[in-house]
Specification:
about 130 residues, five-stranded antiparallel β-sheet
């Protein structure tokens, strides 16, 4: 699981998680009302994918490819985002992504884990 420390804020009925240029707008329905100002988010590589509008992903998040690891039927891509946050995403085996390239990726809805930055207790999944 990739982990990143992000600032949390309310946006109407939703929530915005951000750090520098990285910003995610999320529904807040599954999170308690007392979410702290800073949280840790976690996402498994199989729930993060290179951006496609048709996939209905949460995002998009811009980043730079740090590494590409061919795993046979799929490829693991390490991505560094604004604020030096690091994520891993899965892609098709024939992906054209190369280290140093700029890419966009997103997270499947309901697959972003949110934790309290101080206690590390789970706050919910969005």
């Amino acid at each position: 699981m990739s982990f990143a420390s992000l600032d949390a804020g309310r946006n109407g009925t939703g929530m915005v998680l951000s750090r520098g240029e990285l910003s995610l707008s999320l529904p807040a329905a599954s999170l308690p009302s007392g979410v702290p100002a800073e949280v840790i988010v976690g996402v498994r590589p199989e729930h993060a994918r290179l951006w496609s509008e048709s996939d209905r992903l949460v995002g998009s998040i811009a980043g730079r490819v740090e590494y590409v690891e061919m795993l046979g039927r799929e490829t693991l891509i390490g991505i560094v985002t604004a604020g030096d946050q690091r994520f891993a995403a899965l892609a098709e085996a024939d992906t054209a992504a190369k280290p140093g390239e700029n890419v966009r990726f997103g997270v499947e809805p309901g697959r972003l884990h949110v934790f309290d930055v101080t206690t590390e207790q789970a706050l919910g999944i969005v």
